[in-house]
């Protein structure tokens, strides 16, 4: 028998995170394109980001038929937050800059690349990247390298750069509670044995 689930954050009702999810305004619009395999993931950080930002939209799928309209909201320039040799480092908005539609693929690196492959319009977008990505707080999964962040962490860092000095740190509160809850569930000893060496390499 399945446990009761919160229909908003999709967590078990006993571990609902909604009380920790903020409601933040942003000049930047965030479009999260989530691979279907991530929807039922225990750490669905893209959903947390979409719920915590008023100017965000989460769309689940592999092929997005309505991509032309999704990528062209009036008054925004679309940019893909994804590594590439020619990716431009994100910088704070100037006074007259048009705000960005920050498009964020959500999935493992392999699934995110598949989304780009299946959606040529997405792959064709100019790319942006974080100049100095901080160390991930995602202590439950070995990152593939320095600067590899969970989806919500990458979004928070991008918005902190674009909209400085505005802080978006409140978006990380439910994420941190989620991580702490997972560690508590597995037990400190198991966590230390499997994840506690601090190596993100």
From TrEMBL:
PANTHER family: TRNA-URIDINE AMINOCARBOXYPROPYLTRANSFERASE 2. Coiled coil: none annotated. Keywords: S-adenosyl-L-methionine, Transferase, tRNA processing. Its EC number is 2.5.1.25. It comes from the Bacteria. It is an enzyme of class 2 (transferase). The keyword DNA damage does not apply. Residues 2-187 form the DTW domain. Belongs to the TDD superfamily. DTWD2 family. This is tRNA-uridine aminocarboxypropyltransferase. SMART domains: DTW (SM01144).
């Amino acid at each position: 028998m399945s446990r009761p689930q919160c229909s908003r954050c999709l967590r078990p009702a006993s571990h609902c995170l909604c009380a920790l999810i903020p409601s933040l305004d942003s000049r930047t619009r965030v479009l999260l394109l989530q691979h279907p395999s991530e929807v039922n993931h225990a750490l669905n950080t893209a959903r947390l980001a979409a719920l915590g930002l008023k100017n965000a939209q989460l769309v689940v799928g592999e092929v997005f038929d309505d991509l032309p309209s999704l990528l062209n909201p009036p008054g925004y320039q679309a940019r893909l937050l994804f590594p590439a040799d020619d990716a431009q480092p994100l910088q704070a908005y100037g006074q007259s800059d048009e705000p960005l539609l920050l498009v964020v693929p959500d999935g493992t690196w392999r699934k995110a690349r598949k989304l780009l492959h299946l959606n040529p319009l997405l792959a064709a977008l100019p790319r942006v990247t974080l100049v100095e990505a901080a160390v991930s707080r995602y202590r439950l999964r070995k990152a593939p390298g320095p600067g590899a962040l969970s989806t919500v962490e990458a979004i928070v860092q991008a918005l902190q750069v674009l909209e400085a000095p505005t802080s978006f740190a409140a978006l990380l509160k439910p994420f941190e509670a989620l991580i702490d809850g997972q560690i508590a569930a597995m037990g400190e000893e198991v966590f230390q044995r499997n994840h506690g060496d601090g190596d993100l390499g």
